[in-house]
Design goal:
The complex is a heterodimer. Chain A is α+β, with helices and mostly antiparallel strands. Helix content of chain A is about 15%, strand content about 15%. Chain A is elongated, with a radius of gyration of 17 Å. Chain B is α/β, with parallel strands linked by helices. Chain B has twelve helices and 15 strands. In chain B, helix 12 links the parallel strand 14 and strand 15. The chains are: A alpha+beta, B alpha/beta. Bound molecules: iron/sulfur cluster (2 copies). Chain B: Keywords: Oxidoreductase.
């Protein structure tokens, strides 16, 4: 069962089960959520304006993906492998420190 | 183990349920009021307001949300409870699948009430039986004591096999009727029902998972098999927990079908819920009058006690199945289930289906006697004139 959870993002891959006994008891994500690179879906990209950020971490709480992390200096960073560009963080930020900009690909 | 001295209280079926929720140390209750379920939640709210129970109460705007919130709480690891009735249960239908599919041991009391229209608030089992295929276990209580005991046991069974459970009581006949209930001191309930150990720890961010994630045709099938197997495994757990309950507290629930006078009976009455109280009373009287009758009260409808039914069928000539419910276009639901079990065996007693008490119509001892007469006639004739009898119909 450990293999189900233990993977790091760098080694994340889809797990293939070949017998019913290998399945987890409840239908949880078969690979870790981390292997699902939701960053591929993005059209808009959140940009953080640090001067406005008050480090309340509301964006971190609301982000539906594992995309926002807290940096050592206390500001928030965005992991673009996972940011799907939904804009929830920008909508929730109380100081409008996040803007959504069209991403150039 | 502390010595067991029951605490006797005169309570309604609904209050019995609320006390059981408190004693089970439920952590989250999310519910929406619907007659005749309302007083369960009112009593729980009173416990919370008085500081007698440490329960997080989530007020919701519908039964669909009540089940959704219970599922969320259960997924996060809490012991979660809700209660509903009839149309409310129907509104939960979609969410019921989410609870069982995600293997979350939510426990719910459903107060059996007739489906509308015509509008009715009285007893009828069609509401809960319509949820037969949602993957929930179903326990039918005969009296207020069984409501209390049923809730406590259901948590233990549900949390062992990770399948949600419904405890079902009759509208008004139990929900609002006061009776003596023997309650168990808190420390003994705690010994019987320790804190829940969830399958997964959602708060462990180092092993991030999502619950109920997509499964392609390559995986869905196996998850369904796992739920089917858990239900099958639940039979042994139910019997073990029922036996343990008996050893600790003197009321034995090791049988999924409670039997009386079956061994030497020509025929038995089979049914579920409060109407079996009437049947048991009537069978005692009929025995004194020389009728060779018995009863088989189905406590657990899901998982269905096939093996126990087979044993009964081998020893009797007939089974009168009493259904306070109906599957339109076919027959009574318990009747249909029971007949199905017996198809592949040589034990084939004559079975007749009596539709009784729909929408709260009274079902009394003389009714049982009349049905006994009819059943006796059927067995003597050796054949059925009609398979399904609408017993109470004004003809
Ligand atoms: S846009 Fe959406 S996914 Fe990206 S960081 Fe903001 S909340 Fe998270
Ligand atoms: S919500 Fe806005 S202010 Fe708060 S931490 Fe995020 S970016 Fe900074």
């Amino acid at each position: 069962m450990n293999t189900l959870f233990g993977e790091k993002k760098t080694e994340a891959k889809k797990i293939v089960f070949t017998s019913v006994d290998q399945y987890p008891e409840a239908p949880i994500s078969l690979a870790t959520t981390l292997s699902n690179f939701t960053g591929d879906w993005r059209t808009f990209i959140p940009v953080i304006i640090e001067e406005k950020c008050v480090k309340c971490y509301i964006c971190w709480k609301f982000c539906p993906e594992p995309a926002i992390y807290i940096r050592e200096d206390g500001y928030v960073g965005i992991d673009y492998d996972y940011c799907k560009g939904c804009g929830i963080c920008a909508n929730e930020c109380p100081t409008n420190a996040i803007t959504m900009e069209k991403e150039e690909k | 183990m502390a010595e067991y001295k029951p605490i006797r209280k005169v309570v309604s079926g609904n209050y019995a349920a609320a006390y059981a929720v408190k004693h089970a140390r439920v952590q989250v209750v999310a519910a929406y009021p619907i007659t005749p379920q309302t007083s369960i939640i009112e009593k729980i709210a009173e416990f919370i307001a008085n500081g007698e129970a440490d329960i997080q109460y989530v007020p919701v705007e519908s039964e669909h949300s009540a089940m959704a919130a219970s599922i969320g709480a259960s997924a996060a690891g809490a012991r979660a409870f809700t209660a509903t009735s009839a149309q409310g249960l129907a509104l939960m239908h979609e969410m019921l699948h989410w609870a069982s599919g995600a293997r979350l041991p939510v426990v719910m009391v459903n107060v059996n009430r007739a489906m509308a229209p015509p509008w009715s608030v009285w007893d009828d089992q069609t509401d809960s039986l319509a949820q037969r295929d949602t993957g929930w276990m179903q326990f039918y209580a005969e009296n207020n004591q069984e409501v209390y005991d049923g809730v406590l046991m259901s948590f233990k069974v549900a949390e062992t096999v990770n399948v949600p459970a419904m405890v079902i009581e009759s509208a008004f006949i139990l929900s609002h009727t006061y009776d003596v209930v023997e309650m168990i001191p808190q420390e003994l309930v705690d010994e019987f029902l320790p804190p829940r150990k969830p399958l997964y720890d959602l708060a462990d961010f180092s092993r991030a998972i999502s619950v109920g994630a997509l499964a392609t045709p390559n995986d869905y099938y196996e998850f369904r098999y796992k739920l089917a197997k858990a239900m099958e495994d639940a039979k042994k757990v139910i019997k073990d927990v029922g036996k343990e309950f008996g050893e600790r507290f003197g009321r034995d629930y090791s049988e999924m079908i409670e039997k009386g006078y079956v061994d030497d009976a020509d025929f038995v009455f089979m049914g579920m819920g409060s109407l079996m109280g009437t049947v048991k009373e009537a069978v005692d009287l009929l025995r004194k009058e020389g009728y060779k009758v018995g009863y088989a009260k189905v406590r657990w409808f899901r998982p269905f006690p096939k093996e126990e039914l087979l044993e009964i069928a081998e020893s009797v000539k007939g089974i009168a199945v009493l259904d306070r419910n109906f599957s339109f276009g076919q027959e009574g639901i318990l009747f249909n289930e029971a007949k199905g079990v017996l198809y592949n065996t040589s034990a084939r007693p004559i079975m007749k289906n009596y539709i009784v008490g729909l929408g709260g119509r009274d079902f009394t001892v003389p009714d049982v006697k009349a049905i006994a007469e009819d059943m006796k006639r059927v067995i003597e004739a050796g054949k059925l004139d009609r398979e399904v009898e609408w017993y109470h119909l004004k003809r």
